[in-house]
Amino acid sequence: MDISVINNDAFRMINNLGKEFQFINFPMIIIAEYTVIFLAIFVILNWFTKKQENKIMVICASVAFILAEIIGKLAGLMHFNHQPFAVLSNTNQLIEKAIDNSFPSDHTILFFSFCMSFWLFKKGRRFLWILTAMLVGVSRIWVGVHYPLDVLVGAFIGIVSAVLVYLTVPRLTLITTFITKYESLEKIITSKFHKV
């Protein structure tokens, strides 16, 4: 069977759930649009903790995202498709989105890059990170702005990038040197701020 047919059918199956279970639409809109705010808050809070491991985790997640975005843009040059709402009739579109190349999903790349990095570093309740990334991916289909293949490829790119960065970047002396110098600078600024 043609992959585009499977992709369209899978999209319809998930997206049509919004018509059947309308009470879930609002939570899905929140997840699809605003979970990024909570991700940003978590990143900032972890950066300003006193644990060096948390700073390394944030650096790794950020580098993984940059790497994944570059790979995603290259993948987008090799394959192009508009968002489902721009192509398919009767799409349950729940959020506004400009029409462009939806392959792969940038939101999914972002969340899997960061959440997979957190999963690799954090020992407790690690499944919550992957669950969060998966929910964001599904929500992007639910609200009508991405196909399942956009999300699956975005997730794959994000996961691979996070693992590659996790296996290499923490071993670089440049990272620990940067963090040590940053923490020294932070102490100087903090001490001057307290004196004022």
From TrEMBL:
One of its GO terms (cellular component) is plasma membrane. Keywords: Membrane, Transmembrane, Transmembrane helix. SMART domains: acidPPc. The chain crosses the membrane at residues 23-49, 56-82, 102-121, 128-145, 151-169. InterPro entries: PAP2/HPO, PAP2/HPO_sf, UPP_Pase. Signal peptide: none annotated. Gene3D superfamilies: Phosphatidic acid phosphatase type 2/haloperoxidase. The keyword Membrane applies. Residues 54-166 form the Phosphatidic acid phosphatase type 2/haloperoxidase domain. This is Undecaprenyl-diphosphatase. The lineage of its organism: Bacteria, Bacillati, Bacillota, Bacilli, Bacillales.
